[in-house]
Automatic annotation (TrEMBL), chain A:
One of its GO terms (biological process) is positive regulation of translation. This is Elongation factor 4. PANTHER family: TRANSLATION FACTOR GUF1 HOMOLOG, CHLOROPLASTIC, TRANSLATION FACTOR GUF1-RELATED. The lineage of its organism: Bacteria, Bacillati, Actinomycetota, Actinomycetes, Micrococcales. Belongs to the GTP-binding elongation factor family. LepA subfamily. Residues 21-207 form the Tr-type G domain. The gene is lepA. GTP binds at D33, H34, G35, K36, S37, T38, N154, K155, I156, D157. Keywords: Cell membrane, Elongation factor, GTP-binding, Hydrolase, Membrane, Nucleotide-binding, Protein biosynthesis. It comes from Brachybacterium nesterenkovii.
Automatic annotation (TrEMBL), chain B:
The keyword Cytoplasm applies. One of its GO terms (cellular component) is cytoplasm. Belongs to the anaerobic coproporphyrinogen-III oxidase family. HemW subfamily. InterPro entries: Aldolase_TIM, Coproporphyrinogen-III_oxidase, Elp3/MiaA/NifB-like_rSAM, HemW-like, rSAM, rSAM_sf. PANTHER family: COPROPORPHYRINIGEN III OXIDASE, RADICAL S-ADENOSYL METHIONINE DOMAIN-CONTAINING PROTEIN 1, MITOCHONDRIAL. Coiled coil: none annotated. This is Heme chaperone HemW. Pfam families: Radical_SAM. GO terms for molecular function: 4 iron, 4 sulfur cluster binding; coproporphyrinogen oxidase activity; metal ion binding. One of its GO terms (biological process) is porphyrin-containing compound biosynthetic process. PROSITE patterns: RADICAL_SAM.
Length: 628, 391
C-alpha cells in the first residue's frame, strides 16, 4: 500500500480522462455522532487532498449549525487519489469519489439520490453504540440499490467500545462473517488506509455507455453567493464538456455550462466529466429549484430522450406557521425565507394571517428536523425572533357533497359535514434494547400505531416495525420515545400513503372567541385530553384581566372543556410617591409599552410569552409563566 | 425655555421640605433616608436646616430668573425620613425662613410627618407655636406583630397619646396606615382601622404595602422568608378599610386617602395631583414649575456640598411635552373623587369610557354628566383604567 501517487501515475486519473475501471464512487452511511465526518477528514488527509495545516475538523460540514450539531445536511462529493499496490508490488492509481450523504430521517429522498450516484457504501457504526434506526433504514435503501456494502466499526479506540458484539450485529445485518467487519478509528487513523484499499478492491467500477447521449444525475445542488447554484452530478452515460449547452430533463430548461469540474476539496475546473465521474456544474442560475435533486442533465443538442429513473419532487410533509414576534419584522422574514429557498428546494411557504399572531407564513417542511433547522437558521443567521405554531400534517377531506379539500392548517378545517378524513401514515422503524420493548409498544399503541413486525438484531436489541400516523410522530412521539427509553431508542420513518381516521378539529376559545393559533386536528378519542390540557395551560399563562375570561375547548359548537381566569381585582399603585410624579409617569409609560406588546384576542390581552409557552411542548414554561 | 416676560405671576406655591433622617430604616422603606447622624461633607442632621434654607434662597433666585414670582405659599409639607427627628426649633426655623422669602397665605396648611415616638407634648406645642397646623403620624398598624414585621419601633399605645397631645396643641391630625403586610389578617386590618378611628383623626391615608426591589423586605421575599403579597387579599383589605372608614363618616377623596370633611383633605397632596407648582427642598426632593419637573441629588453630603457652592442641587430635570402633560393629568386626576372631565381624554381613547362604565369601573351618572369618577371597583383597578384612557 502506497497512499501517495507519483506524478506519472497521477496523469492516469486526471479528471475527464480517467478510465472507468480506475474510478470508485462510494458514500458513508452512518448515524449522527458515529464519526462519519472525522473518518472523512482522515481520508482527506491520507490521500493528500488536504494537508495537515489546512485541516479543519470536519472539513466537509460547511454550515455552523451542522458543525454545532455534528450533523450534515447538504452533501458534497470529494475526489481523492489513492494508490493500491498489488501482490506483484505494482502500484496503480485510482480516483475515489466520496459522496457525503445527509444523515437524517427528513432527507430520505436526498439520501436515495446520493446512493444512486454510488456503486458502494461504507456502513459506519460506532463500536460503542451499535446501529441506529436511521442507519438501518439507509442500509436497506443502499441494499435495494444493489450497492456493495462495506461494514465498518468506528471508534475502536474508545474505552467503551465493544467491537465483537457489534461486529456480530452488523455482520448478521449485512450478511458477512463478523471477522470481515473492518475496524477503524477515525480519530487516530487506525485502519483507514486498509479501508481505502478495501474500497478499491471490493466496490465495482462504474459502468455506462460512453457513446450514448449524455445523462448525468443531479444528487445535490447548493446555492453559493458568488457563483450562483453549484450542481453536483454523477455522469451515467456519455460525457459533459465545458461551454456546452445543457438541458434539465424534468423542466426542459436550457442553460449554458459556465464551468464544470471536480471538488478536491476545493472546486477545480476540468475539461469535462466522463462516464462514472462525479463533479460539479455552474450555469449561473440563482435558485436551486432550477437544478433539482434527482433530475437528469443532458446536452441541449442531440441529448438523451429518456431521463434516468428515480426523480421526484420534494414534498413537504409537515407544516407550521412562522410569525415574527415583532410584527414589523414581517418583511425581514419574507426576505430571509426567499434567501433560504435559494438553497433549499424542499422549502416552500405562503403568507398566512392569524388573528392571534398577525402576519406570517405557512411553511412546509420535509419533517421535524428540517423545520428545526430552518427555524434556527432564521433566528441565527437573520436575527429574527419567531413564534412557530404546532407542526401539523396534510389532511385530505371528502365532504358530504363529494368535494375534496386539502387542509394544511388546522384553522382552515372546513365547517361543513365531513364524510371522510385521510391522514398521512408512516412506516416507522424503532431500534431499542429489548428491556424497553414493553414501554415502546405501549407508547406506539397510545399513538394509534399498528405493529407490523419485530426482529431481534442481536440478543438484546430489537427492531420494531410500526404503522404510525405522521401527525402523532410530529406531535411529541420522538421526545416520549427518548424519555421512555433513557435515550436508547432510535427511530426512522417514511411516509407511505394515507389512512382514514376519526379526526376532529379542537378549537380553543377565549371569551367565546376562537384563537386560531391553538386549533388542532386530533383523534376524537384524544380531543378531550387535548382540550383539558390546553385549557389548563392557557389558564396558567394568560394574566388575569379586568373581567372574568372563560377558556373553552370546543369541537364545532360543542364545548368539551372549560377553565376560568378570574377577574383581576387590584391593579393600582397605592403608595405615596410624594412629588416624584415623573417616576409614576415613567412606570405608567412602561406599563403601556407592555400593553402594546400584547396581542388582543377580542378584548383579552395575551402576552407574546403566553403564545410561545403554550405552543412549545415544554410544560415547565407553562408552570413558571404565571404571574398571578 | 419660557420667556420671562410672557409668564404671569402665579399666586399659589406649595413647598415640600424633605428631612432625610430616620432613627432606624424600616424593612419596607425605599425612601431617601439615612440613619447616621453624621454624614460627610456637611450632610449632618445638625447642619441640615441651614443647608435646606440656603437651597430655598437658590430656588427663589432660580424662579425669579425664569420670571416666576409667587404671592403666597398655600401649603407646606415636611416629609421624610422622620422630620420630627430634628428638634422642633429646626422645623420652625426652616418654616420661618421660607416665610421670609414668600409669605404664607392666610389659612395655609403646614404639615409635618411624625413618628408617634419621636414627639412629645412639648415638641408638638412648639411646632404649633411655630406655625405648623397639621401633623401626620406614621401609625401603620395597631397590631404589634404587624409593626414588628414592618420594623416599626413604636408602641401602638403611643399613638392615641401622641394624637391627644397634638389635639391639645391645636393641630389637625392625619394617620397613615399600611395594609397587606405579610402575615397580616383581615382581623388585624380591622383592629388597626378601629384603633385609628378611635383617635378621631381628621384625615387618614391607607397604603398597600409594596415591596420595592432594593429593600430588606425584598430580600426576605427572595429568600422565601415572607410570602408574596396576594392581589386578591390586598383588594379585600382595601375594601374593608374603605367600609370601616365610610361607616364612621370618613369618605375617600383619592384612591388611598380619606377625610372627615372636604375641608380636611390634604391640600398639599391635592396640589400634586392637580398640577400645581411646588418646590422640593432637600436631598432627592422633586419640584414642579409649569411643566418643568426636577429632582435633587439624593445623598445629603453631595446635596450639602452643591448648595454650599451656590449651585442648585439638581440631579435631573425634564420639560413635559403636551403629550406627557395630558398623560399625567389623566394619571393624577382620575384618582381623585372629583374625577376628570371626559374631554381630557384623547378622542381616540374615548370609546374606552363606555367600556369602563359597563365594567363598573366608572360612575355612570358622573360619566353621563361628562366627568370620569372611579367607582370603588374602579379605584382598585385605577392603573388599568388609566392605561386604557391614555394613548
Amino acid at each position: 500500500m502506497t497512499p501517495r501517487i507519483a506524478d506519472a501515475d497521477a496523469a492516469i486519473i486526471a479528471p475527464a480522462a480517467t478510465p472507468v475501471e480506475r474510478i470508485r464512487n462510494f458514500c458513508i452511511i452512518a448515524h449522527i455522532d458515529h464519526g462519519k465526518s472525522t473518518l472523512a477528514d482522515r481520508m482527506l488527509q491520507l490521500t493528500g487532498v488536504v494537508d495537515e495545516r489546512a485541516m479543519r475538523a470536519q472539513y466537509l460540514d460547511r454550515m455552523d449549525i451542522e458543525r454545532e450539531r455534528g450533523i450534515t445536511v447538504k452533501s458534497q462529493a470529494v475526489r481523492m487519489p489513492w494508490g493500491v499496490t498489488d501482490e506483484s508490488g505494482r502500484t496503480e492509481a485510482y480516483a475515489l469519489n466520496m459522496i457525503d450523504t445527509p444523515g437524517h430521517v427528513d432527507f430520505t429522498y436526498e439520501v436515495s439520490r446520493s446512493l444512486a450516484a454510488c456503486e458502494g457504501a461504507i456502513l459506519l457504526v460506532d463500536a460503542a453504540q451499535g446501529i441506529e434506526a436511521q442507519t438501518l433504514a439507509n442500509l436497506y435503501l443502499a441494499m435495494e440499490n444493489d450497492l456493495t456494502i462495506i461494514p465498518v466499526l468506528n471508534k475502536i479506540d474508545l474505552p467503551g467500545a465493544d467491537p465483537d458484539k457489534y461486529a456480530a450485529e452488523i455482520g448478521s445485518l449485512v450478511g458477512v462473517d463478523p471477522d470481515d467487519v473492518l475496524r477503524v478509528s477515525g480519530k487516530t487513523g487506525v485502519g483507514v488506509p486498509e479501508l481505502l484499499d478495501h474500497v478499491v478492491r471490493t466496490i465495482p467500477a462504474p459502468t455506462g455507455d460512453p457513446d450514448a447521449p449524455c445523462r448525468a444525475m443531479i444528487f445535490d445542488s447548493v446555492y453559493d453567493t458568488y457563483r450562483g447554484v453549484v450542481t453536483y452530478v454523477r455522469v451515467i452515460d456519455g460525457r459533459l464538456s465545458p461551454r456546452e449547452r445543457i438541458a434539465m430533463m424534468s423542466t426542459l430548461a436550457q442553460h449554458d455550462l459556465l464551468e464544470i469540474g471536480v471538488i478536491s476539496p476545493e472546486p477545480i475546473p476540468t475539461q469535462g466529466l466522463g462516464i462514472g465521474e462525479v463533479g460539479y456544474l455552474i450555469t449561473g442560475v440563482k435558485d436551486v429549484r432550477q437544478s433539482k435533486v434527482g433530475d437528469t442533465v443532458t446536452t441541449a443538442r442531440t441529448g438523451a430522450t429518456e431521463a434516468l429513473s428515480g426523480y421526484s419532487d420534494p414534498k413537504p410533509m409537515v407544516f407550521s406557521g412562522l410569525f415574527p414576534i415583532d410584527g414589523s419584522d414581517y418583511p425581514a422574514l419574507r426576505d430571509a425565507l426567499d434567501k433560504l429557498k435559494l438553497n433549499d428546494a424542499a422549502l416552500n411557504y405562503e403568507p398566512e394571517t392569524s388573528t392571534a399572531l398577525g402576519f406570517g407564513f405557512r411553511v412546509g417542511f420535509l419533517g421535524l428536523l428540517h423545520l428545526e433547522i430552518i427555524r434556527e437558521r432564521l433566528e441565527r443567521e437573520f436575527d429574527l425572533d419567531l413564534i412557530s405554531t404546532a407542526p401539523s400534517v396534510v389532511y385530505d377531506l371528502t365532504m358530504e357533497d363529494g368535494t375534496e379539500i386539502e387542509v394544511l392548517n388546522p384553522s382552515d378545517f372546513p365547517e361543513g359535514k365531513v364524510r371522510e378524513i385521510r391522514e398521512p401514515v408512516t412506516r416507522a422503524t424503532i431500534l431499542v434494547p429489548s428491556e424497553y420493548i414493553g414501554t415502546v409498544m405501549e407508547l406506539c399503541q397510545s399513538k394509534r400505531g399498528n405493529l407490523r413486525g419485530m426482529d431481534y438484531l442481536s440478543e438484546d436489541r430489537v427492531e420494531l416495525r410500526y404503522t404510525l400516523p405522521l401527525a402523532e410522530i410530529v406531535f411529541d412521539f420522538f421526545d416520549q420515545l427518548k424519555s421512555r427509553t433513557k435515550g436508547y431508542a432510535s427511530l426512522d420513518y417514511d411516509v407511505e400513503g394515507q389512512q382514514a381516521a376519526d379526526l376532529v378539529k379542537v378549537d380553543m376559545l377565549l371569551q367565546g372567541e376562537a384563537v386560531d393559533a391553538f386549533s388542532a386536528i386530533v383523534h376524537r378519542d384524544k380531543a378531550y385530553n387535548y382540550g383539558v390540557e390546553m385549557a389548563g395551560k392557557l389558564k396558567n399563562l394568560i394574566p388575569r384581566q379586568q373581567f372574568e375570561v372563560p377558556i373553552q375547548a370546543a369541537i364545532g359548537s360543542r364545548i368539551i372543556a372549560r377553565e376560568n381566569i378570574r377577574a383581576m381585582r387590584k391593579d393600582v399603585l397605592s403608595k405615596c410617591y410624594g412629588g416624584d410624579i415623573s417616576r409614576k409617569r415613567k412606570l405608567l409609560e412602561k406599563q403601556k409599552e407592555g400593553k402594546k406588546r400584547m396581542k388582543n384576542i377580542g378584548s383579552v390581552e395575551v402576552p407574546q410569552e403566553a403564545f410561545i409557552a403554550a405552543l412549545s411542548s415544554d410544560d415547565s414554561a407553562a408552570k413558571d409563566g404565571k404571574k398571578k | 425655555m419660557t420667556a420671562a416676560s410672557a409668564v404671569p405671576a402665579r399666586r399659589d406655591l406649595s413647598v415640600y421640605i424633605h428631612v432625610p433622617f430616620c432613627a432606624v430604616r424600616c424593612g419596607y422603606c425605599d425612601f431617601n433616608t439615612y440613619t447616621a447622624t453624621e454624614l460627610g461633607g456637611g450632610g449632618s442632621q445638625r447642619e441640615y436646616p441651614q443647608v435646606a434654607m440656603a437651597e430655598m434662597d437658590l430656588v427663589l433666585a432660580d424662579d425669579r430668573a425664569a420670571g416666576y414670582e409667587y404671592d403666597a405659599v398655600s401649603t407646606v409639607f415636611f416629609g421624610g425620613g422622620t422630620p420630627t427627628l430634628l428638634p422642633a426649633d429646626d422645623l420652625v426655623a426652616m418654616l420661618a425662613h421660607l416665610r421670609s422669602l414668600i409669605p404664607l397665605a392666610p389659612g395655609a396648611e403646614v404639615t409635618t410627618e411624625a413618628n408617634p415616638d419621636s414627639v412629645t407634648r412639648a415638641s408638638l406645642a412648639r411646632l404649633a407655636d411655630g406655625g405648623i397646623t397639621r401633623v401626620s403620624f406614621g401609625m401603620q398598624s395597631a397590631v404589634p406583630s404587624v409593626l414588628a414585621t414592618l420594623d416599626r419601633t413604636h408602641d401602638p399605645e403611643r399613638v392615641p397619646q401622641a394624637v391627644a397631645w397634638a389635639r391639645e396643641a391645636g393641630l389637625d391630625v392625619s394617620l397613615d396606615l399600611i395594609y397587606g403586610t405579610p402575615g397580616e389578617t383581615l382581623a388585624d386590618v380591622e383592629t388597626s382601622v378601629r384603633a385609628a378611628l378611635a383617635c378621631e383623626p381628621d384625615h387618614l391615608s391607607a397604603y398597600s404595602l409594596i415591596i420595592e426591589g432594593n429593600t430588606a423586605m425584598a430580600r426576605h421575599l427572595r429568600r422565601g422568608e415572607i410570602a408574596e403579597p396576594d392581589p386578591d387579599d390586598m383588594a379585600d383589605k382595601y375594601e374593608l378599610v374603605d367600609d370601616l372608614l365610610a361607616a364612621e363618616g370618613m369618605s375617600w377623596y383619592e384612591v388611598s386617602n380619606w377625610a372627615r370633611t372636604p375641608a380636611h383633605r390634604c391640600r398639599h397632596n391635592l396640589a400634586y395631583w392637580r398640577g400645581g407648582d411646588w418646590w422640593g427642598i432637600g436631598p432627592g426632593a422633586h419640584r414642579h414649575r409649569d411643566g418643568l419637573r426636577a429632582g435633587n441629588v439624593k445623598h445629603p453630603s453631595r446635596y450639602a456640598t452643591m448648595v454650599r457652592a451656590g449651585e442648585l442641587p439638581r440631579a435631573q430635570s425634564e420639560h413635559l411635552t403636551e403629550v406627557e402633560r395630558a398623560l399625567e393629568r389623566i394619571m393624577l386626576e382620575l384618582r381623585i373623587v372629583d374625577g376628570l372631565p371626559a374631554d381630557a381624554v384623547a378622542p381616540e381613547a374615548r370609546a374606552m369610557i363606555d367600556v369602563h362604565v359597563r365594567r363598573g369601573h366608572l360612575d355612570p351618572d358622573a360619566a353621563a354628566a361628562g366627568r370620569l369618577v372611579l367607582t370603588r371597583e374602579g379605584r382598585l383597578l385605577a392603573d388599568a383604567v388609566i392605561r386604557d384612557l391614555t394613548v
